Amino acid sequence: MTHPRTLRVDYDKTTAVVCVVGSELNVNLNRGAPPSSKFFSVKCTPNVQYTINPPPQETAPLAQIPLKGNSVLLITMSSASQFENDSKLSVQYYANNKEVLGKAVLHLTAVEISLDVDADRDGIVEKNNPNKGSWKWGPKGHGAILLVNCDSERTYWKKPDTEQDYISNVSDLKDMSAMVLRTRGPAKLPQGYKLTLHISQGDAESVRVFRSRSADNKKNAMTDNVLYKYLLKDHPLVLSSEVLSEEVPYFGGEAEMKFYVEGLRFPDKGFDGLITINLSLLEPISEGLPETPIFTDKVVFKVAPWIMTPNTLNPVEVFVCSTEDNYQFLKGMRNLVDKSGYKLKICYKYENRGDRWMQDEVEFGYIDSPHHRFPVVLDSPRDGRLQDFPYNELLGPDFGYVTRVAQRKDVSSLDSFGNLEVSPPVTVRGKHYPLGRIIIGVAFPTATKGRNMTKVVQDFLWAQKVQEPIALFSDWLIVGHVDEFMTFVPAPDRKGFRLLLASPDAAYKLFRGLQNEGHGEAKLFDGLEDEQQLTLNELLDDDSLQTENNYVQSCIDWNRDVLKRELGLDEGDIIDLPILFKLEEDEGNQYRAVAYYPDMVNMIVLGKNLGIPKPFGPKVNGRCALEAEMCSLLEGLGLSCTFIDDFASYHKLLGEVHCGSNVRREPFDFKWWNLEM
Ligand SMILES: *[C@@H]1O[C@H](CO)[C@@H](O)[C@H](O)[C@H]1NC(C)=O
Ligand SMILES: *[C@@H]1O[C@H](CO)[C@@H](O)[C@H](O)[C@H]1NC(C)=O
Ligand SMILES: *[C@@H]1O[C@H](CO)[C@@H](O)[C@H](O)[C@H]1NC(C)=O
Ligand SMILES: *[C@@H]1O[C@H](CO)[C@@H](O)[C@H](O)[C@H]1NC(C)=O
């Protein structure tokens, strides 16, 4: 219960009071008493309860109680009034000789008011949850949840629903959180009293409130002015950045008014996602003066974070681009996706305009609440020629869109979302991450210069909170993406997954073993017409390549240690894949790494089926030794390896299967609000 409200009462006057059931009125008895009063007595009708402080010795209700300097009367009412003034309370004052000096009379009208939300997170707006005014994480937590209405229910001229301040289709209401104003009381509020909803200026940037007009059939009590406003639409806008405070009608009797609350922006730097909405009962003072609030009810929402989906979640749809030259790759992908039983979505030339890097332009995620959830694509500030694809092709009913706008000069290759991944669920030194942890690549922590993921995107990712990011060192690569040296695959044992890391050491070990077994003349790039072939002997004789790969291995090992620490992994959770790199001078005259042959770790993971870049490794007994090694490393986990030829159309352009594809996955069963934070 909130603090009691101080009520002024004067003797020889009748004061009309509106009292909200559940709240308390505090009357200073001495302040309103006639001079030289020494005793008082109190009488009231049954709906009124009172206590006297300090408590009097006498017990009989009509007894004359000594009036003290600090005598206070605390008044509550147990149920709503049927009529205005239907309850009464009077205080009679007496002199020392018990002579009556005066009498103060209260005419009381009780109303029940409760602004309600789904604070217990079961999808239903319960009545007057005691925790509705605060927000707490965890299975024992509480607090209502709001979605950013970032999909588009419009049929024509689509744009995110957040960008219009009216509801064009009732289907939009399911993206919003219900809020109910429950009232009970006389047919109308006493003259001059008003109910208003209000929000702060800051919160108004993040939320809009609409009202349903369906309850207005019982609208007898509405003033013409209010009625006119609400007649305009079925779901009039009540609160927005333009209107921070708005009167809402009071219907009389027992009534419920439904509101729809729409989230407008995601948590971000400086915005933790919490929003407060207040409802106040205003009391008139006198003509020309502003009303004062005599009762305020408060509800709190938290905006749902954007959540990424790791490789261990089931795929729903696979996305690839069709270009002039990638027929071979598309054929391989189509076979794999068909075999796995998922949907393949092809982005055609008119939309991709030659940009094949489907991984880099978008990241798929979702938002979730107890009442609704839908996928949301995060559009990268990379803005290659694929830049219109997420907005034009993905945004739609129950498919949301969010982006972060960066200055052109701040955007580098590290802003492509091959550099944005997420781990499966992990437990790290006792701390649970049931939604996994986001992984990005940045410049080496001690570097004073170097490329980084742009600040607006990093700020956004960190602010989502539920998949606390890990920053790896990826600037050593020309392209600079974490997916060039790591991925996760599902596993039936241990932590439910393995971390796969590219490993030059593993490649040298494999190749030296083959050389020892007499396969030194087996050729890399065997079967590729336009590619200069190279024997294992030649490769193993190349000292500078070995030196370059020692450097690469040390970069990957640095990341390996970070991943072990931040994901709580043991050596047994990691598999090293035989992959070599080479250093090349990039545009900035820096030596950075690229894969020497197709980078097999850059794979697509579709349940148990892996689509792996075909490595064109040395053939031993007619079989590619790299493929054989991959199969032997992964098939024990129940995984099936399919090798996809991406050599000409992706590998030669410094990307592979993962860079050229994307997967929308099913959301987690785990509910983000059940996280213990
Ligand atoms: C309720 O009581 C107040 C104060 O006595 C009075 O001004 C008002 O007119 C009354 N209202 C009704 C509907 O009787
Ligand atoms: C409203 O949305 C539904 C579901 O998306 C759609 O089927 C319907 O055509 C829309 N109605 C209008 C008037 O746009
Ligand atoms: C809402 O009410 C609380 C107290 O209940 C108050 O602290 C806060 O400032 C109010 N906010 C607005 C926007 O009126
Ligand atoms: C790059 O981003 C990381 C992670 O936010 C930050 O710690 C680092 O200072 C940044 N480095 C540079 C060179 O801007």
Automatic annotation (TrEMBL):
- Superkingdom of the source? Eukaryota
Active site annotation, chain numbering: D360, H481, D483, C659
* Residue ranges constituting the Protein-arginine deiminase C-terminal domain according to the UniProt record: 294-674
Which reaction equation describes what this protein catalyses?
L-arginyl-[protein] + H2O = L-citrullyl-[protein] + NH4(+)
Matching Gene3D superfamilies, A to Z? L-arginine/glycine Amidinotransferase, Chain A, Protein-arginine deiminase, central domain, Protein-arginine deiminase, N-terminal domain
Give all residue intervals belonging to the Protein-arginine deiminase (PAD) N-terminal domain.
1-109
Cofactors required: Ca(2+)
Q: Quick check: keyword Lipid biosynthesis in the entry? A: no
InterPro entries recorded: Cupredoxin (IPR008972), PAD (IPR004303), PAD_C (IPR013530), PAD_central_sf (IPR036556), PAD_N (IPR013732), PAD_N_sf (IPR038685), Prot_Arg_deaminase_cen_dom (IPR013733)
Where in the sequence is the signal peptide annotated? none
Any Pfam family from its record, for instance, is PAD_M
Query: A Gene Ontology MF term for this entry?
Result: protein-arginine deiminase activity
Annotated ranges, domain Protein-arginine deiminase (PAD) central? 111-283
Q: What is its EC number?
A: 3.5.3.15
Please verify whether the record's keywords include Iron.
Answer: no
In terms of one coarse class, where is the protein primarily found? cytoplasm
* Protein keywords: Calcium, Cytoplasm, Hydrolase
Give the similarity note: Belongs to the protein arginine deiminase family.
Q: What does this protein do?
A: Catalyzes the deimination of arginine residues of proteins.
- The protein here is known as Protein-arginine deiminase
